[in-house]
Specification:
seven-stranded mixed sheet, Rossmann fold, three-stranded antiparallel sheet, alpha/beta
Amino acid sequence: MKTHYVGHDQVYQAFKKDGLAGWDKTEEAYAERFAWMKKIFSAGHIPKTGKLLELGCGAGNMGIWLAERGYEVYGVDIAPTAIQWANERAQTARSSAQFLIGSVLDLKDFADSSFDLVIDSKCFHCIIGEDRKVFLKEAARVLAKGGYLLIDSMSTPVKSDQIKGYDPASGNTTVNGIVTRHFATPENLKKEVSDAGFVIVNSFVEIDELNGNMVIEATRA
């Protein structure tokens, strides 16, 4: 399967040039994202403080929001434009959040057991095939024992006739020969996380107009 993760940078270039708010395009869309996070917070499993790594931080919208809530936030994204945008936004907001260019599959800038929380910022569904095991392995490596993992991922069910390039057999979308998304079943998502050595403490799925969205909260065993 052919992937092109850094291809996301072209989208960030266009969105930044057009004056959009980030990957989610509008401030209203980010308000919905923050409300979604507040729902996760309300479950009571996420630690209220700590050193936090955001995987797939994009233009920094979520990372800065989390820093405002008292977390020591670091964000990583493979798209250079996204990281430039995130650091510009952090400087303007006088935020303590720090954002770095890097791959979520090789968190070489971060030491073992150096974070209390790792948050998947809707990145995991962009990770394909065996890379998904690497993603979770790296998340486990940088988490302290008992540390908190949040997976926030697109999932099944999928309205396949409305999502371009979706293949129900694989759960993947393919656009111009590039595999772009993986819509795992809720059962398989939980298995992936458990098999990576995490203990799931909470999970739920909500269905929007096109697909499911699954949250898994877990701790490093």
